[in-house]
Request: fold
Amino acid sequence: MTRIFGAIVAVTVREFKRFLRQHGRLISTFARPLLWLAVVGAGFQRIVPTAGTVSYLQFLLPGIFGMVILFSTMLSALATVHDREFGPIRMLLVAPLDRWVTVVAKTISSTLIGVFQCLVLLPLIWILGLRPSATDLVKLVGAIILLSLALSALGMLIASRLRSVENFAGVMNFLLFPMFFLSSALYPAEMLPGYLQPFVRADPLTYGIDLMRYALLSGLYVGNFGSNYKAPFDIAVLVVVTVVLFSLAALLFGEEDHLGRILLTDSPRKAKRSATSWRKPAPAGANGAGPQPDKVAADDAAVGVEAASLSGQRR
Amino acid sequence: MASAPAILTSGLGRDYGRMTAVDAIDLEVRSGEFFGFLGPNGAGKTTTIRMLTTLLHPSRGSAFVAGKDVVDDALSVRKEIGVVFQETTLDGDLTAEENLRFCTRLYGLSRKESKLRIDEALALFGLTDRRDNRVRTFSGGMRRALDLARGVLHRPSVLFLDEPTLGLDPGQRRRIWEFLKRLPAERGTTLFLTTHYLEEADPCDRVAIVDAGAIVASGEPAALKRELGRESIELRTERPEEFAGRVVELTGLEPHRAPHGLSVFVEDAEDVLPLVLPLTKDGVEVRISRPTLEDVFVELTSRDRKGLE
Reply:
């Protein structure tokens, strides 16, 4: 238990120190949302029709929080892939910890960094002229945490399947940007054509941003900028997404076969099969000090005899 | 009965897709032994270490580390082992101390114990005054030393080292070796290391030479050299033909022409040396040439390669 807690603390402390020390990353983290607000916000303001008292920038702000969380958690996922190949994650993998502990530790640290970035950007709420109540603020932070968790779990699932950092460009193009543009971060979801609606609904970011809008814009006359779903529905979706994706990530991260330096393409399915066909022959060597297997099936025994004879040859 | 072997494998193998990285390896490393696993690049050394350290599932065979099955009881194995990877596992953005603390947290050491061990480890490797510097600013040798410090911080009973001195200068290599050599005696640690710097394997208690995923020879370095390499006596002279007859007379052995003069292959150089010493009066320089592990290694691993070329 101390070790599990220790691992979570170790990973989180490290991620925060890294985050704060990598100045380039730190600057871009905070410059990107401001740039989007200033440039993209100003442009879209003229395109997206409004019918209410809420301005486009006020509408956009939860979308920007969503973007910050999306980029932050995906960057954490990328760092996980890199770390597993070159960095301290390997220390976690040979430490006496279950694989899922690594996934928990990385999910929590990724969530906290995402939340931290949003908290730093919270003053934008007042700068953009919104005056939320204390309750609304608590709701907003809750939404930020939930979305961070869901996207961190998604990031870990991706990290568990990626073999190298190079593959990450594909994730950026085919997942990160579509997720962002389909999430109703920039424009009301109903503005998108019908054939895109299923994708909008499949995008966890949609529900996170919707929930943040619910918290931040409640009580205002929002016109077409309103929430698409009821808050409990958003929460339910995010919780389910988190639990499912996290479980999958924990399960797949435990399958270490893709961690080896793969020289030839090694399909994961094949790797898994070879892993399960792994048998435990009787320990070879005459001293018999090794632990004895409890059950040895007939074919296992054959393998055992073969292994023993090989070992006998050497002696 | 002796205690359980530190490492015991039988028929251990691993495929990557259709390629066989490790064919079938049988090893028995005794507790407290300093074991060298030698082989050319791509021989399967790293794959073997990954299987033994529970990072990779074997495709066949079995492996026990500290008496625990690496597949069924991976967690217990991980409690016993320390690993120093070929590539550094340090975080360049953290300081030396922070990197070590990351490790002590993973092993659930108390704050006090953790500080004690970090101080000790930093002192041992002469890094105390760099403890608050980021690892990014460290030289290759210092990073390696810190990697090693981290690998032994939790006092593992079996320490795996994958090419621990790769890319280090001779001075750094010597310092790391001096530390490693003391570990089995001082802490009872079993050392399992891979290297392709063959002269480094001389201090090992035993070595196994692996090529193309299988062990081609194993034993004590001295015995391997005796068995597979041949000692010879070199006779340096400008006039080899003049002395060839006298060598036969003195030793009963047929000398061979060599670039430096003559060579006599012998079973044991010490027995034959006194017999040829009279030749020194005539200006012949006499010396013993002992096979190195490198000779053994090249002898064993070159056959396949020739076939490939």
About this structure: The two ends of chain B are 49 Å apart (CA to CA). The first helix of chain B runs from residue 45 to 52.
